[in-house]
Amino acid sequence: FFAILLGVSMSGNITNEELEEIKEGFEKIDLNSNGYINTSELGELFREIGFQMPGYKIREIIQSVDLDKDGQINFNEFITIFTDLKNDDVAQSFKKALNKKEGILAIGGTSEISSEGTQHSISEAERFAFANWINSSLEKDPDCQQFLPINPNTDALFKVVGDGILLCKMINISVPDTIDERAINKKKLTTFTTQENLNLALNSASAIGCQVVNIGAQDLKEGKPHLVLGLLWQIIRIGLFAHIELSRNEAIAALLKEGESLEELMKLSPEELLLRWVNFHLEKVGNRRISNFSGDVKDSEVYFHLLQQIAPTGSEEDVPRIEIDTSGLYEKDLTQRAELMLKQADRLDCRQFVTPADVVSGNAKLNMAFVATLFNKYPALTKPEDQEWNLQSETREERTFRNWMNSLGVNPYVHHIYGDLMDAMVLFQLYDKIKVPVDWDNRVNKPPFKMQGGGRMKQIENCNYAVELGMSAGFSLVGIGGQDIYSGNQTLTLALVWQLMKRYTLNILEDLGDGEAAGDDLIIQWVNKTLAEAGKTSSIKTFKDKEITSSLPVLDLIDAIQPGSVNFELVKTGSLSDEDKLDNAKYAVSMARKIGTKVYALPEDLVEPNSKMVMTIFACLMGRGMKRV
Ligand SMILES: *[C@@H]1O[C@H](CO)[C@@H](O)[C@H](O)[C@H]1NC(C)=O
Ligand SMILES: *[C@@H]1O[C@H](CO)[C@@H](O)[C@H](O)[C@H]1NC(C)=O
Ligand SMILES: *[C@@H]1O[C@H](CO)[C@@H](O)[C@H](O)[C@H]1NC(C)=O
Ligand SMILES: *[C@@H]1O[C@H](CO)[C@@H](O)[C@H](O)[C@H]1NC(C)=O
Ligand SMILES: CC(=O)N[C@H]1CO[C@H](CO)[C@@H](O)[C@@H]1O
């Protein structure tokens, strides 16, 4: 039954046979047989299949399919859970549950690959788009020549990710310098060295904020279409959005509206900024505006105008004028019109992600990626000169915290650490992850919140509760009130988030040991002992130890945990320049990920050394080392 649900949830089509199965399933879940599934019945289902879902998530699922808004699911609505492909969360949840349940794994695994129909509907459009994107992104990479170009019309894409190299390269393109070239195994790959590459790819993907909890190395080796596309999209999106962010691209301030503050603009997500950007350019030519990347772009009209507005005018040196031919606007057939529009985009070297069919069908994901491509290449924005401001760009620490949260799959995705935590919803989810019980039903006010009055109070109440939970978890939160989190006080917000991350890291250790409370001393002792036992000469006294700046203790420890893994010929020793130190640190971080640890810290954290992040690195390595036995 669940296999069917899974199959259906991926293909979007239901046969009569399947309908019967779903009906049976519905009856099983509908415990009181009243023809409706309510929150507690759905919760029971998830529990039964071994998957803990917080109450609010279950309500969210119900809300999302509850067409007649009566707070429960009838049979017709139930079917939509499995047909609505867009409801990815649900499909993912089921998948997770299935993977956990013994015996079903095999069924779940094959249902994805078994029928041709299933694969097609996973999204041929995405497969096509991503294959082409990879083709052009990695065209010049010497290590990728053996599998490029990827034929976008076949399933070749799913095969080429199997050895991990291509994924490592794509991650490094999205967030440059994430992966050290020296850590990738490139020649004569064996099962083991392939596994290492995939570890490196998956742990690096986490480190840049991808949610990979459902994806294992085996899934990538087997090239499971659904998972490969999901991971690739996360990686690609992070790269596309990297500069659609006020603090990294001040020209975005040109999008400020009358009476709006920079803070307000800063809170917009990249999607919202892109919509605003399109409308900003549309304002110059007429009254048309868009509010989504689906229905509103289908007729290509908006695109023609946008291209015309952003095409280089020749006023800049070395960038010749490109005149956009808008005669395609008069083409009646929408598909042909889209093709004419894309021909113009091609002249800007921006024909990416969408085919005419994707434009006309209003594929929101791919159209947004297309618009992001246009923005990244030709923003055509000028930073307003008349304004004084001092924008702080995101610190390394803020970014690391954010990536950590996002990799745990918090919802909504955190773009701005302060603005996105102010209603505490993300904090509550993090408490869930560190096993601090959250009273979702009675204490949490759920969004949406009104901008004024009551909404503000409700968010502050949430923040107060978030602080209270921290106290109950034994965090040190002296002088931190809910109001500080709500108003985005940087120091205090970071203090809370750090304690969440630290607890998360230590929990992993405790899960491995016999419940012994892990602490700094215990970790340092373990590090010293492990180093000594492996005959290494390095050791550390604290997480601020000067020795750490060379990364040698980390590299030695990695080699102690997995003997022979570190190539010490690549490691600089003796008296080190800052550059040498950074070089070692990059190698160390990538190597740690390669042997299977989820390190979020960055090379700079070792060079500094930043004792908090250094602690997480050693703790992760300790976790890995303990698993060895
Ligand atoms: C990653 O990117 C950096 C900077 O762009 C580059 O120096 C490095 O060689 C790249 N590594 C890989 C594995 O592509
Ligand atoms: C997109 O926005 C338009 C209005 O601007 C609306 O009519 C249409 O339903 C929206 N489409 C989707 C898929 O949200
Ligand atoms: C944040 O809180 C600290 C401690 O209460 C305070 O010293 C600091 O001024 C606050 N920062 C802002 C920007 O309000
Ligand atoms: C680790 O080793 C160093 C050097 O031998 C020593 O000074 C330090 O006290 C040790 N720390 C712990 C916690 O074992
Ligand atoms: C088969 C295929 O689509 N090849 C393309 C891969 O990407 C390069 C660079 O964009 C194109 O020139 C190829 O046509």
* CATH architectural name of the largest domain: Orthogonal Bundle
Question: CATH homologous superfamily of the largest domain - what is it?
Answer: Calponin-like domain
Query: Could you describe the largest sheet, including whether it forms a barrel?
Result: none
| Overall spatial form | globular
Helix segment tally: 29
Helix-strand makeup class: mainly alpha
Parts with pLDDT < 50 across at least 5 consecutive residues: 7-12, 97-121
Strand content: under 5%
Q: Helix and strand string, N-terminal first?
A: HHHHHHHHHHHHHHHHHHHHHHHHHHHHH
Please give the CATH class of the largest domain.
Mainly Alpha
Instruction: Give the helix proportion (percent range).
Output: 55-70%
Keywords: Actin-binding, Calcium, Cytoplasm, Metal-binding, Phosphoprotein, Repeat
Main location: cytoplasm
Protein name: Plastin-3
Pfam family, one: CH
Report on this model:
With 629 residues, the protein is mainly alpha-helical. It folds into five domains: 16-106, EF-hand (Recoverin, domain 1); 124-242, Calponin-like domain (Actin-binding Protein, T-fimbrin, domain 1, Orthogonal Bundle), CATH 1.10.418; 250-377, Calponin-like domain (Actin-binding Protein, T-fimbrin, domain 1, Orthogonal Bundle); 396-511, Actin-binding Protein, T-fimbrin, domain 1 (Orthogonal Bundle); 520-627, Orthogonal Bundle (Actin-binding Protein, T-fimbrin, domain 1). It is built from 29 helices and no strands. It has helices spanning 2-11, 16-29, 39-48, 55-65, 75-83, 88-100, 104-114, 116-137, 156-160, 165-174, 191-207, 217-221, 225-241, 262-266, 270-282, 301-310, 334-347, 356-361, 364-377, 396-407, 425-433, 454-472, 482-486, 490-512, 520-533, 552-561, 578-594, 603-607, 611-628. The longest helix is centred in the C-terminal third of the chain and has 23 residues, at 490-512. Mean pLDDT is 87; it is low at 7-12 and 97-121. The structure holds 2-acetamido-2-deoxy-beta-D-glucopyranose (5 copies). One 2-acetamido-2-deoxy-beta-D-glucopyranose is lined by residues 291-292, 294-296. Residues 168-169, 172, 176-177, 179, 181, 184 line the site of one 2-acetamido-2-deoxy-beta-D-glucopyranose (NAG).
